[in-house]
Amino acid sequence: MASFSSILLLILLHVLMVFNVGDGSEMTSMDDDELLGLFEVMSSLLDDPTWAQEHPQPCTDTPWSGVQCELMAQDDGSQDYNPTIFHVTKIHIGNDILNPPCKPTASLSSRGLLKLPYLKTLSLFNCFNVTPVSLSSSLFENSCLSSLEHLALVSNPSLHGSIPSSLGHIQTLRVLSLSQNMFTGVIPQEICGLVNLQQLDLSYNHLTGSVPQEIGKLKSLTIFDLSYNMLGGQLPPSFGQLQSLQKLDLGSNNLTGRVPQEFGNLSRLVLFDTSHNFLSGPLPESLSGLKQLEYLVIQDNPINTGMPLFIGSLGRLKVLSFSRCGLMGPMLTSLSTLKNLTALSLDNNSLNGTVPSYIGSLPNLEQLNLSQNQLSGEIIVSQELINRIGMRFDIRGNNGLCIKNNTSREVKSCISSKSRTGGNKSSWGEQEEDECRNMNSNLYQSSWSPKNHGYEFRLGLDNMFLLLIFLLL
Ligand SMILES: *[C@@H]1O[C@H](CO)[C@@H](O)[C@H](O)[C@H]1NC(C)=O
Ligand SMILES: *[C@@H]1O[C@H](CO)[C@@H](O)[C@H](O)[C@H]1NC(C)=O
Ligand SMILES: *[C@@H]1O[C@H](CO)[C@@H](O)[C@H](O)[C@H]1NC(C)=O
Ligand SMILES: *[C@@H]1O[C@H](CO)[C@@H](O)[C@H](O)[C@H]1NC(C)=O
Ligand SMILES: *[C@@H]1O[C@H](CO)[C@@H](O)[C@H](O)[C@H]1NC(C)=O
Ligand SMILES: *[C@@H]1O[C@H](CO)[C@@H](O)[C@H](O)[C@H]1NC(C)=O
Ligand SMILES: *[C@@H]1O[C@H](CO)[C@@H](O)[C@H](O)[C@H]1NC(C)=O
Ligand SMILES: *[C@@H]1O[C@H](CO)[C@@H](O)[C@H](O)[C@H]1NC(C)=O
Ligand SMILES: *[C@@H]1O[C@H](CO)[C@@H](O)[C@H](O)[C@H]1NC(C)=O
User: Which ligand is nearest to the CA of 233?
Assistant: First the structure.
């Protein structure tokens, strides 16, 4: 079957060559073998048996949007009168090109690709959907794809098997994205030899094993995404050598152990996401070195310490999430310096004590979740803050936390000494509870009743107090 179609291609190629000869010899040409390689690759992918006939000169007269060529000097040094030649440098197939992009039996022709030594970009999105396809090790061996800089095989539900270690041979690679496929097995150690790699995205696969110890060799890496796999083990300290790293997403894996000290060396890091793992605390104070950090997402790890002090020195932070991290003790008072903070999520921890007053004056805050803690006392909020945050303000599930509207004239404390220490629901008096309920229902209706002497209410007595501020509006 395969040989039959390649015989057809050969016949076609000969017809085309005869045609080309008649076309005039000054025409810039293409290597016959390379053209045949392109035809083979396209016929193995596309559901279009006439592609080769419709695009006999894909670099010149009959272009196709997913194929790009570049004019290069002939490298044989011959002094004939046609010193330049077209080479195929890019093959891209995705929904932007065709819909559906590939035939159900699509496969990757390694024999075809072997004939495309100038290919710099191979990107196949949503191409392998039905017939199982795996990456053969030979695809990256014997100087096959030896010019490749950008390999993106993304969103291919039938692309499975392991990531071949021979990928490590392609030293020219700058971008490697194998996201949203069905890859299993480990991340081959050989990947760490790709010293020119700037972006590595292996997210949304089923990779197991641990992150290779030598990951620090990828010195040019700026974007590194391993999220949504099943990677376990500890984080290698060599991560600290990735000094160019700007985005590191390790979320939704099975990582354990502590974040190593060396992570504090990642001075260019803008995003650090380790959410949904099994990382334990304490987090190293060296993380205060992440001066460019804007997104710190630790959510859902058993950190089980107090709030880390280094957070206060991350002046560029925009998003901070420590939800479900087992944080205990008081809220940090030093967050007032985080003027750019837009989202603060500390929900479902064991934080206790009062809420520091700076919370009400963080100028850019748009989302605040302090729910499910043991916070008490009052939060002073302005009408302006309420307008800004609206329904993204959640302080439910805190025993004895009150909201105080700082624009109202009369303010009455609703904190009982019992609530500060006890945090036991039944330690609240019935009367106080009723008072809060009344205030609450007034607030639901957005109506002011003089009988309540102010806009404040207690939070967290059972579930009956729904405390999203949007209900106030
Ligand atoms: C990852 O952790 C989950 C939850 O603990 C567990 O069910 C699963 O087996 C783990 N997977 C691997 C590959 O370790
Ligand atoms: C990386 O971090 C470690 C521990 O924090 C430190 O000893 C080392 O000097 C740092 N290396 C570089 C290159 O900054
Ligand atoms: C806060 O954000 C603004 C606008 O994005 C930026 O110009 C400023 O440098 C940031 N502040 C800090 C401390 O990073
Ligand atoms: C809080 O976290 C616990 C586990 O740590 C979980 O069982 C519970 O559902 C969470 N509560 C909420 C309201 O998300
Ligand atoms: C907070 O909880 C810790 C125990 O986790 C306790 O020692 C401390 O007294 C509590 N602080 C307040 C203000 O309730
Ligand atoms: C109310 O809060 C706003 C903003 O947080 C602040 O500027 C103002 O001074 C406060 N007013 C009073 C009376 O506390
Ligand atoms: C706040 O966190 C709780 C518990 O983690 C969650 O159930 C709730 O949906 C969050 N609230 C908002 C407004 O996001
Ligand atoms: C806060 O008080 C001001 C002035 O009394 C009032 O206009 C505003 O509606 C109040 N806001 C809330 C949420 O109670
Ligand atoms: C709350 O306090 C009451 C009486 O002081 C006690 O009987 C009850 O067990 C306490 N509940 C909890 C959850 O600590």
Answer: 1
254 lines ligand 1 (CB under 6 A): yes
Residue nearest to atom 7 of ligand 9 (CA): 426
Q: What is the pLDDT of residues 48-74, one digit of tens each?
A: 889 999 999 999 999 999 999 999 887
Ligand 5 pocket test target in 350, 352, 355 with most atoms within 8 Å of CB: 352
- Is 352 near ligand 5, meaning CB less than 6 Å away? yes
User: At a CB cut-off of 8 Å and minimum separation 6, what does 272 contact?
Assistant: 248, 263, 266, 290, 293, 295, 296, 297
**pTM score of the predicted model:** 0.81
Ligand 7 in contact with 392 (CB < 6 A)?
yes
Superfamily of domain 251-415 in CATH is Ribonuclease Inhibitor (3.80.10.10)
Give the least confident one: 11-25, 166-180, 227-241, 301-315: 11-25
Domain locations in the chain as residue ranges: 251-415
